[in-house]
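Q: What would this chain look like folded?
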Amino acid sequence: MFDVETSCSYKCNNDYKQVSPTVTTCGQRGRWSRRLGECKKVCPAETISPDVKQTVCTNENFSGSECTYECRDLKIGKIKRTCSETGEWIGQDFLTCKCDQCYGGNECQYVLKWFDIRAQVRKMDDNNSPTEVRYGDRLISCEADRDFIFNYDCTCKDSKVVDRYYCNNYLTRNQACTHALAHLLRNLVAQGIYEEPCDLGQSYSAC
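A: My prediction, written as structure tokens:
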């Protein structure tokens, strides 16, 4: 029995969390001002990598809560994990927010290989018209010319970048533009403008 105006408080055991007021008082009519407090099982905070973010949790980290995770920078899927009644997270394994080797783009939809863009340059026509090269979602234009002693030079430029990349004194248009393209690729990768191709080491290091 408790005297009128007696107040009682409670505290949840370890691994449980309060979900209602913690203090109740015995009133004049012998009734408690609030029902006995409720504790719910909780799951520990999950450790996630910096490239993963939590988007939705239905009920914080209480048991029964379902949380959704996705990659911060890539659109390559979502996972769901649930806080179980035993206080453990269950469900799908966490995402690996990286594209497979030689792929890039926000959905890993592009093949990023030096050999692929080199092959595009090697299909250049014999005329002096510019050749367009695709690297991921970027468009590169390469244009060759001959000097007075009949050596070839070539300039390559990304459509969204001011700088031009130039190589000269080659016997063929193909050689000149392949080197100019490698020159552009290495510089824009170093500046963080381009994702690095998986075979960058196979490209020419300089003009």
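Residues 103-202 form one domain.
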